[in-house]
Amino acid sequence: MHGPVLPGWLLVALCAATGSYCLLRMRSGSARARRAAGGEAVMGFGMAAMAVPAAFLAPPRWMIAGYAVVFGGAALRALWLARGGAHHLHHVVGSLAMVYMALAMAPAGGGGAHAGHAGRTAGGVPLLTGVLLVYFAGYVLSTGVRLLPGATGGAPTAAVAWGARPELALACRLSMGIAMLAMLITV
């Protein structure tokens, strides 16, 4: 990830913590919830790996290609699972955004100082980046609203295991959406 080192490491910590909680969520709930948590864990750890500041570790080309392959596969899996529920369409968009960012991380091959600027708009931001920023901003806002007290309409229930708390799952999704926005801004 390009940008300041400290925010990069904070983003790594946030994404790794989110991925870890998603692994914990895989231990409880229905099979469908476990599959969703597994996909979110892959996304969280993948985002953590991609957020490592470039000043600390400049990823080699094979690692960038690996990111693109892993998240391309995750997008195909999410597209397959989308037959059973629209929630997986968000995973498709997120995985494809990760493929896009992985490809954007790749060093431009030749062409001088202005290589890689061909697809940029007058403001310097690629159109696809702008569309993804709008999508994830909307996702973050809608997820944040669902976390407000009273938004779910129900009172808290009896003691629930940490891995099965719906508000924590929403908080993880909110965190990953915010992290995606931060990463897209640096593209």
Give structural notes.
There is one protein chain. The chain has 187 residues and is an all-alpha fold. It is 65% helix and 0% strand. The chain has six helices and no strands. The chain has helices at residues 5-25, 31-50, 61-81, 87-105, 127-146, 166-185. Helix 1 (5-25) packs antiparallel against helix 6, helix 2 runs parallel beside helix 4 and helix 2 (31-50) packs parallel to helix 6. The longest helix is centred in the first third of the chain and has 21 residues, at 5-25. The termini are close together.
What's the arrangement of secondary structure elements?
Blueprint: H1 5-25, H2 31-50, H3 61-81, H4 87-105, H5 127-146, H6 166-185
Helix pairs in contact: 1-2, 1-6, 2-3, 2-4, 2-6, 3-4, 5-6
Described by strand count, sense and barrel closure, the largest sheet is:
none
Instruction: Provide the gyration radius in Å.
Output: 17 Å
Terminal Cα span: 8 Å
Percentage of residues in strands? under 5%
Mean of residue pLDDT values: 81
The helical percent reads 55-70%
- In one word, what is the shape? globular
Query: Low-confidence spans: pLDDT under 50, at least 5 residues?
Result: 110-124
Structural category is mainly alpha
Q: Name the helix and strand elements from N-terminus to C-terminus, one letter apiece.
A: HHHHHH
SS field, number of helical segments: 6
The counted number of beta strands is 0
